[in-house]
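User: Please run a holo structure prediction.
Assistant: Happy to. Please share the sequence and the ligand.
User: Here you go; the ligand is heme C.
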Amino acid sequence: MVKKVLLLVSLIFIGMQFYRPEKNISKTYSTSIFEKETNPPTPILTTLQSKCYDCHSNNTEYPWYNNIAPVSYWIDAHVVDGKKHLNFSNWEQYSTKKKDHKIEELVEEVQEGEMPLKEYAWTHGSLTEDEKNGLIAWAERNRVIYQYALKYKNGQLAN
Ligand code: HEC
């Protein structure tokens, strides 16, 4: 009985290896517009690249264990969900209001230690205090600009 169960589990595991979720890798440097617009200083850009873009851009840097199912399914689900909520590669498609709101969310998530997701932080490390402070300061500066843009639409003071 135990042998049969083990055999079945092994077969399921082997079967799973045949399905590979499509990788999230675009050919271009997809976050360039976002970076030109928000101008993150080099250390902040490094943090975004190493701890956020994997789930919030069109370019994920996959770890070796992504070659093993069901880990690959699990990583894929995080990437799909992360991009649905926030995709820095689609920044130019967001309205000013949406950009301002996403940056506001970013400050909250970082302050509360919610991002990067804890499963990701186990392998990639969570944010250091310096990284958090840097991200928040850069984000707040950008919010000032977005809010100014919202307030003075077309050179007129908007209500
Ligand atoms: C392992 C994947 C992963 C990584 C890495 C990651 N995120 Fe996320 N992020 C998600 C997922 C999934 C969601 C949506 C579900 C949730 O809020 O928990 C999300 C939601 C968010 C949201 C909320 C967006 C909204 O409007 O709902 C913000 C802001 C955010 N992440 C910022 C960041 C920042 C900043 C980093 C880097 C410090 C980061 N994330 C790293 C997966 C990730």
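The chain has one domain: 2-155.
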